[in-house]
Write a structure and sequence with these properties.
It catalyses: ATP + H2O = ADP + phosphate + H(+). The chain is built from 43 helices and 39 strands. The chain is α/β, with parallel strands linked by helices. The strands form 7 sheets. Strands 1, 2, 3, 4, 5, 6 and 7 form a 7-stranded mixed sheet that branches. Strands 8, 9, 10, 11, 12, 13 and 14 form a 7-stranded mixed sheet that branches. Strands 25-26-24-27-28-23-29 form a 7-stranded parallel sheet, with helices on both faces. α28 packs across α29 and α37 packs across α43. It is globular, with a radius of gyration of 33 Å.
């Protein structure tokens, strides 16, 4: 029996035959497809556009079948009609096949609750049993299912060309966890994606493609809105479609595997899942971060909250010995019923392997869900593993990993496309209205915090017709601007004020509640109501208690409105949230946006009009499909096909990288949950230090200090030791990538609850200090016990991967194609690759800048030519700064020369350290500048030049400072600062441009008429995590692109002052083709000097010999093989040898500050830090770019008995090898296996070159005490 008993008629052969002729639903004289046009809150937002709807009703009238008559007393309007199938859609090669018999969409009664073990045979051998009530499921390719659905739905201009769920063969990288594997498999669109249709991610939106084309449609919409207006709440979701026993009830099963390619892709997916899922190996307590089953106590508590939310809005779930669920599942199969509002989802828990079935009824059945999606079920499963989600029971959250802000959800009803653009783009445009609103918010919030309300009169607040006016007495302001994350609902948001109030309702018992209070500056809007309702969900999850009401306060009218949450409101809003999450995911995977609104009266005032129209044209849209007529042509007439290719290409690369970062973040969380271990961007099991928090200077921020406790929480519970007494090294077991200035989130270890976000201000081996915008507080509880709870809690700090950086990159890219003079100029230079122009003819000595360049004695000829290149550039200049050639000094003199001309200069680089290094040298030259950036991220010597370090108290003083200072410095991603809004500069200089991706570089260039790129594309390229993005060109910097197109724009710096002759010859031979030269004889002949020589072993004496600047210690005669541990690789014996050499250097009088140790692998960095007793810098090669030391030790790590198996992408990258070879000034010591490394072409050339210098030293077993070494290596590995 199905979960809901409904009478059904058996499928008649005649009806079946007629319906088998097409995959689309055909209108029938007596039977119409039942499909609601709108649900929930969406009804209300249509009422705001009725004036526009009436105007548009007289437009085009496509042919439709006549609408069915309205059912008497029906509370909803009839469904919008679907267009007749196109001839292509009517073609069905299988039309002669008999239709499948009707099958009940339920699992067998006798089927026990089971765990799911994947096996490929299940996909092929199972079939339906015509005689029983059991359904056996078939997994079909996602794109086939969606294509079949698309044939029954209108085609969208912007979303019909690509399939966001198209299957691509998944990677065989076994290091990914299950969830990450599935996500990665789904995230890569098929190469043939543009040949298939795609159901819009917003199925309700599909019925909104152009609902104003037909007058009858408008009349029905008006009737629908009138009906809705009579209801008690504009958010009420209409009841389900009435069941008609004469309607066809045949089930729409997903198609069989249609091709070998699709079959292979699905089998590979399940093979990967099977690799991770083991029924016996997984403990039930292990779950994804933020899951309700983190701990038994937390699980039970969250289940109670979920139940209370469900029951608090009028639901009475029938619990038949079942269990409450609030966790994520992988969708294996989706089955739907024709002409009947019902869908069945077959789910599997990818951690435990348990199988479940969810039945979607009524409006929920129209949710767009495909096999491979992730869903979160909030509700009850019965003993047979079934759960009903309908108008009255439970919730389904689609793509819960996508946390959508409540503001975005509320704003998306009027135009989903605009909301998705808001999510994907971050610009530096600021409005006066937004600024005023922000100021009013802060003033009222500050007043609430500092002043306790003393008005003796308790205000009366109207909570609507059902609840009436109630007296609300404010008892406590719990928090202001409270960041709330609701991963169970896929929501997030910042709540203006969290308050505790006492609600007095006429004679009834007073009720004390916690609720959100939102301030609004505009007029009353249903968007505001929707936002408050969603915030009640977030607060319910955060405070672990049911919150069913909220408050809206309108600042200008001094009116307070009460909001009561109803089940119908939540259903409509959650479905809208699901649709928006689908839209966001589809935009990320296929770059396809929701369709254009096509309402000129609304579109012409939209802030995204320029961007929206360009995207539309870039993806095949035209004037007709835009619906905007001349408005569209006016904004895109300059946009060529070549521009479209460039925009699509780089937009796709940005999305690929964004997806990869999301997968890495999800993998880190999954690994954290399973193993409880640190990753390179996180620290776990931290406790608060004994030092109290304190305000940071000049800013209303609070600094908290954390130390590490190694013992698990269970062992420390009840301990009366002070946290500081059991502190240990933060970096004991990891190469911690966290650094000062990083954005981080602070969460609890026990419940995985995110408590706050902040910025690291200091990190050391024993302590990390984090700055927060307000005092730390655990949600709920007694305010008097806040401090005690904070000290008892165990904390985790995770680096917050700033996804806004990708929003900035997309905005930079689309800015390139806007219709203005600056964009047109840059487009010509960067997209069209026009040749840059330079001033020709003689250079007059009257120019003070030219005179300065020729008279400055500290400059060499290369540096003079580079500065003159900058001074004569009309468009741009490229400065190739080879290692040690003094490019920073050159830039300082270039700035001085430009200032003599009165030019305004914008200095940028990708990293804060690169910007500050240049500024420190400018400061030493007496040049004033302004540094834009977060106080925590700026170098101490530069902080006085930040606004936070100045005594400025008014906007006028800030403007005056900008007028006085000609040099402004900011990172490439910091250009969105409001301080720079509307600013223009004469020239922009980007340092380290070879390491900056093209989309990031575009941002600063928008502020200047001329630009200079300084870098070296022969060193490390931009860091790109996505292999696919890297292979398609994401690693090609703008510097590289322009230098290859126009070599004449390059001015190289070739005289280097870092490396001695022997070291320089290595990079010259491998990379620079003998273009590098030593700047002076002193540099060429520099040698390491030992202040206090000491005796040592013969092999070590040979290694340290100052007369041999380059030494390669060959370990082929030693058992120095690499060791693999999961995904990491290290070499303990190499670490031991490096430690011995380091000790020898220190014993001979070399200072630790003059020694650097580098290696390609993070795991080897950890090993070396434990092996070396001396205090020396140890980092990866990548982190050492731009650095140098007198002596550099390099550990190659890779060594195995079968060198043919040595495949290393890190060592095969000649850019990385170039960086490694150019860090040393006087001594370069390399340790590795010649036999293994010779299999890498670049390293083979390196070894041959070192051999020419007689620099290879082969160690043998007699050089070391084998037993002592083995013992020491064992200790190193275990430490």
């Amino acid at each position: 029996m199905p979960p809901k008993s409904r009478s059904r008629k058996k499928l008649k052969s005649a009806s079946s035959s007629s319906n088998s002729n097409s995959n689309s639903k055909k209108p029938n004289a007596s039977i119409q497809p039942s499909q609601p046009s709108k649900f929930g809150i969406q009804h209300f937002f249509q009422r705001h556009t009725q004036s526009q709807n009436a105007l548009l009703a007289s437009q085009s009238h496509p042919d439709h079948s006549p609408p069915p008559p309205n059912a008497p007393n029906s509370p909803i309007a009839p469904p919008l009609l679907e267009p007749a199938p196109t001839p292509l859609q009517l073609q069905n090669p299988k039309s002669d096949n008999p239709p499948p018999p009707e099958v009940s969409p339920s699992l067998s009664k006798s089927t026990p609750l089971k765990r799911f073990n994947f096996s490929p045979e299940m996909l092929i051998k199972q079939s339906q049993d015509d005689g029983g009530d059991e359904v056996t499921w078939k997994i079909s390719p996602v794109n086939q299912r969606l294509q079949a659905l698309t044939k029954r739905l209108p085609v969208l201009a912007d979303s019909s060309k690509h399939n966001s769920f198209t299957i691509n063969q998944c990677s065989q990288n076994k290091s990914l966890n299950t969830a990450a594997k599935v996500d990665k498999w789904l995230s890569s669109p098929s190469p043939k994606a543009d040949k298939t249709s795609l159901v819009s991610a917003n199925r309700v939106g599909l019925k909104r493609v152009n609902p104003f084309q037909d007058a009858e449609v408008c009349e029905r919409m008006a009737d629908e809105n009138a009906c809705l207006a009579s209801r008690q709440s504009p958010f009420c979701t209409p009841p389900s479609l009435p069941f008609c026993p004469n309607k066809l009830a045949n089930i729409v099963e997903s198609d069989q595997l249609g091709s070998r390619q699709h079959k292979k892709a699905l089998l590979e997916l399940l093979d990967q899942v099977e690799d991770v899922i083991s029924v016996d190996d997984f403990a039930s307590s292990k779950s994804e971060p933020y899951s309700s089953k983190v701990q038994d106590g937390q699980c039970n508590e969250m289940s109670v909250i979920a139940d209370s939310i469900v029951k608090g809005v009028g639901i009475s779930p029938q619990k038949v010995g079942g269990t409450s669920s609030n966790r994520c599942f992988l969708v294996l199969e989706v089955s739907e019923k024709r002409n009947f509002p019902e869908s069945v989802l077959r789910l599997v828990d990818d951690k435990s392997g348990e199988e479940r079935a969810v039945y979607l009824w009524e409006e929920w059945s129209y949710s767009v869900i495909a096999p491979g999606d992730t869903v979160n079920v909030i509700g009850e499963f019965d003993d047979e593993g079934k759960c009903n989600v309908d108008h009255e029971n439970n919730f389904l959250i689609v793509h819960p990993d996508i946390l959508v802000s409540g503001t975005r959800v509320a704003a998306s009803f009027s135009c989903p496309r605009r909301t998705v653009l808001d999510e994907r783009l971050r610009c530096n445009e600021y409005s006066i209205a937004a600024l005023i609103g922000t100021l009013l918010h802060q003033i009222f919030q500050a007043g609430l915090v500092k002043e306790t309300p003393t008005d003796p009169k308790v205000p009366t607040v109207d909570f609507g017709s059902d609840n009436g006016p109630k007296k609300v007495n404010l008892l406590e302001v719990i928090d202001i601007e409270e960041m709330a994350w609701g991963p169970n609902y896929g929501l997030k948001g910042m709540i203006d004020v969290s308050v505790r109030v006492k609600v007095e309702s006429g004679g009834k018992e007073d009720n004390e509640k916690i609720m959100p209070l939102e301030f609004k500056t505009g007029k009353s809007s249903m968007e505001h109501t929707a936002q408050v309702i969603l915030y009640t969900l977030l607060m319910s999850e955060r405070y672990l208690k049911h919150i069913d009401s909220g408050l809206l306060y309108y600042l200008q009218s001094d009116q307070t409105q009460g909001i009561m949450v109803r089940r119908s409101d939540l259903v409509g809003l959650i479905m809208r949230r699901n649709e928006l999450a689908n839209d966001i995911l589809k935009a990320l995977t296929t770059q396809q946006l929701p369709p254009m609104l096509k309402v000129p009266s609304m579109c012409k005032g939209c802030r995204h009009l320029d961007v929206c129209t360009i995207y539309h044209k870039a993806f095949g849209g035209n004037t007709e499909s835009s619906g905007l007529g001349d408005i569209f042509d006016l904004h895109v007439h300059h946009f060529s096909n070549a521009h479209g290719v460039f925009l699509r290409h780089w937009g796709r690369l940005i999305d690929l990288e964004a997806k990869e970062m999301q997968l890495l973040k999800k993998e880190t969380r999954h690994s954290r949950n399973l193993k409880g271990e640190d990753s390179s961007g996180s620290l776990s099991y931290l406790v608060l230090d004994e030092l109290p928090h304190q305000k940071s200077h000049k800013e209303n921020r609070f600094i908290y200090h954390f130390v590490r406790r190694d013992l698990p929480a269970s062992d420390l519970s009840g301990s009366d030791q002070h946290p500081i007494t059991t502190a240990s090294s933060l970096t004991k077991n990891l190469d911690c990538m966290l650094k000062s200035g990083d954005y981080v989130t602070l969460s609890t270890e026990s419940g995985h609850q995110i408590v706050a976000s902040g910025v690291i201000v200091e990190i050391s081996p024993i302590r990390v200090s984090v700055s927060f915008s307000k005092r730390l507080r655990l949600p709920g509880g007694n305010p008097s016990s806040v401090t005690e709870k904070l000290y008892k809690e165990f904390w985790r700090i995770d680096k917050e991967e700033i996804m806004t950086s990708f929003s900035i990159m997309r905005f930079n890219l689309i800015q390139l194609f806007l219709q203005n003079e600056q964009s047109s100029h840059l487009r010509k230079m960067i997209v069209d690759l026009a040749a840059p122009r330079f001033d020709s003819g003689c250079i007059f000595s009257q120019d003070p800048a030219i005179s300065y360049v020729w008279s400055e004695k500290s400059l060499n000829d290369d540096q003079r030519r580079a500065i003159l290149k900058i001074l004569t550039a009309k468009d741009y200049a490229l400065i190739l700064g080879m290692p040690g050639t003094g490019k920073t000094s050159t830039m300082v003199h270039a700035v001085k020369a430009l200032l003599m001309r009165g030019a305004s200069i914008l200095l940028t680089s990708y990293t804060n350290s690169a910007v500050d290094n240049l500024l420190i040298k400018l400061k030493s030259q007496g040049i004033d500048f302004l540094r834009i950036g977060r106080h925590e991220s700026v170098h101490d010597e530069v902080k006085g030049h930040c606004f936070s370090g100045m005594n400025l108290s008014s906007v006028e003083e800030i403007k005056l400072k900008f007028d006085q200072v000609k040099v402004v410095a900011v990172t490439c991603l910091g250009i969105t600062s409001p301080f720079l809004f509307g600013k223009k500069f004469d020239i922009c200089i980007i340092d380290e441009a070879g390491q900056t991706t093209l989309p990031v570089s575009l941002g600063p260039l928008m502020f200047a008429s001329t630009f200079v790129l300084v870098g070296d594309h022969y060193q490390l390229p931009p860091l790109v995590q996505s292999a696919e993005a890297r292979e398609n060109g994401m690693g090609i910097s703008l510097f590289c692109r322009l230098s290859e197109a126009h070599p004449q724009a390059i001015s190289p710096l070739q005289s280097q002052y870092r490396m001695c002759q022997s070291i320089m010859e290595l990079s010259n031979a491998l990379i620079y083709g003998d273009r590098l030269r030593c700047g002076s004889p002193e540099v060429a002949n520099a040698k390491l000097n030992f202040p206090r020589p000491s005796s040592c072993s013969s092999w070590l004496k040979a290694v340290l010999n100052p007369s041999r600047p380059v030494i390669f210690v060959n370990t082929d005669m030693l058992p120095a093989f690499e060791v693999r541990d999961h995904k990491t690789v290290n070499n303990p014996l190499e670490a031991y040898i490096i430690a011995e050499i380091t000790a020898g250097l220190v014993n001979n009088g070399i200072e630790g500050n003059d020694i650097g140790i580098i290696t390609p692998y993070n795991s080897q960095v950890n090993l070396l830090r434990h092996a070396c007793l001396a205090s020396v810098e140890i980092h990866t090669i990548d982190k050492y770019q731009g650095r140098d030391k007198d002596c550099i030790l390099l550990s190659f790590v890779r060594s195995n008995e079968n060198p043919r198996n040595c495949i290393s992408s890190l060592l095969a990258d000649w850019h990385r090898i170039n960086v490694a070879l150019t860090r040393a000034k006087k001594k370069l010591i390399m340790v590795g296996s010649c036999r293994t490394l010779s299999k890498v072409p670049t390293l083979k050339l390196l070894i041959d070159k070192v051999d020419e210098q007689s620099g290879i030293l082969s160690m043998c077993k007699k050089d070391i005490n084998h037993k002592t070494v083995l013992k020491r290596c064992s200790q190193i590995r275990e430490s």
